[in-house]
Amino acid sequence: MSQIRIDCPAVYLREYAIDDLESLHALTWQPEIYEFLPGWNVSREQREEWFVQYELEENARFMKAVSDGGDVGDLRLRLGIIEISSGEFIGWCCTGLKDELPDPEREIMYAISNKHRNKGYTTQAVKGMVEYLFQHTKIDSLVALAHIRNIASMRVIEKSGFIFKKRIKIEDESFQYYKMSKPLSRPLEDERPMG
Asked: Is the sign of the CA dihedral 119, 123, 126, 131 positive or negative?
C-alpha cells in the first residue's frame, strides 16, 4: 500500500508516523492550539492511546480505501505538516466527518505550531489536502469551520478557496461555516458533443 506524501512549496504532508507522537503531544499543549481545540490537550498516556490504537490504524484503513477505488466512507485521515527546510513536524492537517453538523459533512481541520505561523504553511497544507482528496477519493465536497474569534483560521480557509456560507452554533459556540465543492471536470475540446 502506497504512503501519502503531498508536496507543497515550503512544507509537505505525510501520514502520521510513530515518531511523531511526542511532537504532536507537545503541539496540543500550546495555548494557541488548545484555545480553539479544547479537549485535544490530554495527558501523554491518553494521547499515546489515541495515536496508536486509533489514528495510525485509521490512516492505514483510509489509504487502503484510496487504493481500492477511493470510497473512504466515514474514515478519517490525519497528516502531519512537515517543514521541508528542517524536516520538523510542525502541525497537522486532517479530514473527517463532523458529527456535530446536522447532516455529517467532511471537514478539513488543522493546527500549526506558534513558531511557524504567518508563513503561509497552513494554507499550503490545506490546499494540498483538498487537492489530494478531490483527486484520489470519491469526496465531492468539504467544509471548514472557524471559531468566530479565530481570525487567522478564517484567513487560511478563505485563502484556500472555501466559500463562507453561514454562521452556526455548536455547543453554544459560534463558528463561521465554509464549504467547497469538487470542481466539475470539463471535457476536452475534441470530446465536446457536436450540435
From this structure: negative
Residue with cell 468539504: 142
Give the total residue count for the chain: 195
Q: Is 168 exposed, middle or buried (0-12, 13-18, 19+ CB in 10 A)?
A: middle
Residue 25 CA to residue 48 CA, distance in Å, equals: 8
- What is the set of domains in the chain, with CATH numbers? 5-183 (3.40.630.30)
The grid coordinates listed for 18 are: 510513530
Split the chain (195 residues) into runs of 10 and give each run's mean pLDDT: 86 94 89 75 86 92 95 95 96 92 88 93 98 96 95 96 96 94 67 47
CA angle 29, 34, 39 (to 5 degrees): 95
User: Which ranges constitute the DSSP H helices of the chain?
Assistant: 21-28, 31-34, 44-50, 56-67, 121-136, 151-159
Q: Which helix (H) or strand (E) holds 167?
A: strand 163-170
Global model pTM greater than 0.85: yes
Residue 143 near residue 98 (C-beta atoms within 8 A) = yes
Three cell numbers at 94? 486532517
